[in-house]
Amino acid sequence: MSLPRAKLVRNFPGCPVEATLSYLDGKWKGVILFHLMKGTLRFNQLRRKLPAVTQRMLTKQLRELEESGLVSRTVFPVVPPRVEYAMTPLGMTLKPVVDALAAWGDDYVFCSPEGRELRMSSGGLHAPASPLQAG
Amino acid sequence: MSLPRAKLVRNFPGCPVEATLSYLDGKWKGVILFHLMKGTLRFNQLRRKLPAVTQRMLTKQLRELEESGLVSRTVFPVVPPRVEYAMTPLGMTLKPVVDALAAWGDDYVFCSPEGRELRMSSGGLHAPASPLQAG
DNA sequence: CCGCATCCTAGGGGATACTG
DNA sequence: CAGTATCCCCTAGGATGCGG
C-alpha cells in the first residue's frame, strides 16, 4: 500500500539512466509515449500510428506502461468497445525525455544537414585519427 | 563513401523517437554513454562503473556504439594493452538526451519526495478515476 | 473494436574458459 | 589488460486464431 515504488522500480538499477531506460524498454514504448504526449488515443488510432506493430505487442506494451503508472487505460462500457489511452501526470513528466529523444532523431538520424556534417567529421567508421583507430 | 547514413540508420524507423532509441538499444548502452559523457575511460575503468555487466557484453555494446559513430575506441600499442573509449563529437550531441534520462531517473525512480507524490496521485495501479480504470 | 490464448523462433545475453 | 571463443538458456516478440 505504501510501496508503489516496488512496482515502479523493476530491477533496482544502479544508475539513473539505466532506471529510466527500463521503463522505455521494449520495442515500442518510446513511440507510444511520443504519440500519447500529443493527446489521448484509442487503441486502433494508436495502432495506425505504429504501422509495424502487432496487435499483441501493442496491447502488451500498453499494459506495461499502465503498470508503470505512465499511461492510463480507460474502458468505456459501450458496444463496440471503446478504450482510450492517455498519459498520466507521472507519464507527462517524461515529456522532456521524449522531446530530447525526438529532437535528436530529427537532427541526426533523419537527413538534416547538420546531422550529415557531424557524421562525416566524427568519422568513427572511416577516418583514422591519431594513434590507432580500430577497424 | 557518401552513405554513412546506411550504417547509422539501422532499420529505417518511422519515428524520430524510435530512431534514437535504436542507438540506445541493448542493456548497457545508455549507462555506457552516461559514464563516457563525463570523460574518457579505459575498458576496465568502465567495467567497474557497471558492476553487473559481463566482459563479453561490455565489449559487444562498445563495438556497436563505435559502429554507430557515437563512441571512439583508441588502442595504444603498449604492453599491457591500453584501450580508451571516448565520446565522438556526434556522440556528444546525445548529451541532452542522456541528461534528460538521468534527470528523470533521479527525480522519479530514486526516492525523491516529488517523485513519490506524483506516483501516489497518478494512481495508475490503485485509484479508479471516473469511468472504468482497468485493473 | 479490442483483446486474449497458443505456438514458435531468433538472438540477446549470461557463465566460463582461453589468449596476446 | 583487454579482449575472443563456446555453450546454453530464456524471453521478447512475430503469426495466427478465437471471443465478447
TrEMBL record, chains A, B:
Species the sequence originates in: Rhizobium bangladeshense
Keyword annotations: DNA-binding, Transcription, Transcription regulation
Gene3D superfamilies registered for this protein in UniProt: Winged helix-like DNA-binding domain superfamily/Winged helix DNA-binding domain
The protein, known as: Helix-turn-helix transcriptional regulator
UniProt keyword annotation of DNA-binding present: yes
Residue span(s) of domain HTH hxlR-type: 15-113
PROSITE patterns: HTH_HXLR
